[in-house]
## 1
Amino acid sequence: MDVFEAIRERKSVRSYDDKSVPTDVLEKILEAGRTAPSASNVQPWHFIIVTDLQKRTALSTGKYAKFLKSTPVVIAGLGDREASPKWHVVDVTIAMENMVLAATAEGLGTCWIGSFHESEVKAALSIPDKWEVVAMLALGYEKEKMDISRAILKRLHKRKTLSEITSYESFGKTKPT
């Protein structure tokens, strides 16, 4: 799958099969994050891979994160505030999006998790103070099911066109002909 196909195919998956993610596939996805660009090449990230049910349950207390209990893998993306005070959040986000696209290309589903209580995640995963929990990523094989709500949502909230979200040279200026 090429990168544009992965971008088009990517979707938020909240229901996962019990099938475990093979180590070589997980490492390929993590490598995609490791090789992401960062400001001044500081690479202010650390990723915690969580497969333990008790720990995944502890990570699932956010309002929209309940399904993490039944997700085979959760990746917590941490940013080093000291190494890159201004850019750690952006850099970790870029690395995690690389992982999302790599996972999609490998046939896995993902869901970006921003619904969490940082203090609870830090306690559950023994994260030192200098690290900020930027986001978590649910990862696994999508459970085969009929998802009517996703189909309805897709019809109600269509993607905006390029002309709706872009300007040329200044805000509101349309593409030159």
## 2
Amino acid sequence: MSATNRGVEQHEQIMRASRAYADTNADGGASKLPQRELFVLTCMDARVDPLRILGLDLGDAHVVRNAGGRVTSDVMRSLVLSSALLGTRHVAVIHHTDCGLQASSDAQIHEQLRERGVDVRDMMIGTFDDVDASVHDDVARLAGDPLIGASATVSGYVYDVDTCELRAVGDPTA
């Protein structure tokens, strides 16, 4: 099957799912304010489902996902807006086991991307060796930021993709 045909098939699946969702949720009703005053930063890995893992419903939290669940400038922008304008008071940073950014280096991934013709320039990748240390680093960065740390608690977690269990990393009241 060609890439074009796969794209058309993917589009059709997306539209069918959207129609089914709209049919069962026609009233919408969720507030733009996170009802649990929670901001979740986690990885884009398809095995990580933050709403189910945390027992959240639509409207409970703002969820930002990126490669590795790392703190980037765009995460900071989103979190500042969420906390300053929309009432976020708690931040959960969730990394996971068996992450594609673990046990590699930014330089190695930059090289792989260059080989595929991607101009990476100074793109921050955010690789790490130790998942607990990566969580600790991101929690410390957020808690130490004057725009974030003064208005929100920041907690860190590691999700185990094999056992589906979440465990706290560090002091959950930072």
## 3
Amino acid sequence: DGEVLRRIFAEIAALHRAGSEVVVIACDAAVPRAWTYPGAPPEEVHGRGGTAFEPVMRWLHDPDVGRFDGLVYLTDGEGPAPDTRPPCPALWVVPPAGEVGEHLRFGRAVKIPPQS
């Protein structure tokens, strides 16, 4: 929902302000778009349904997209486990109502705490 997206982009903005180059990978059942975060969230976000984690893992292995120091996968956690190990350390970040489990493999999973 809109609140989760706001919080996700707040986390992305914090990484960007800390000096990290952040590449945002928009995905659901495919990777239709990826861009270097410019310091502000996009006007519109597409997807939001039918999540498959495997396309992102495969995309990261594409030599044309470059090399990454880490993957921070911001997701509701709903989707089948990926088969492909990412080429970098992975951190799964899931909102309070999201699903954390063994399917979020090849890294560590954490939940964003609920707002008080």
## 4
Amino acid sequence: ARPEVAMSQSVQNQNLDEQLTRVAERLARRYHDRTTASEVHAAVDDEAAHYDDARITQFIPVLVEHAVQERLRCRRPR
């Protein structure tokens, strides 16, 4: 790979990681009565792993947030 392509992918991966962290924090705040923040972060990581080989990554945060939110919505408050 050309250096500029590798750099671009590295920046994209860092950006994606930051977006997924924000998704996890947002969901942890929204569903704090149903789960712990660490469980939310683990669920976000687990869901994001489904997209490890994705060539287009811009929609991954939205897809991950939707999937994890659906899981958490089904839980009863503690």
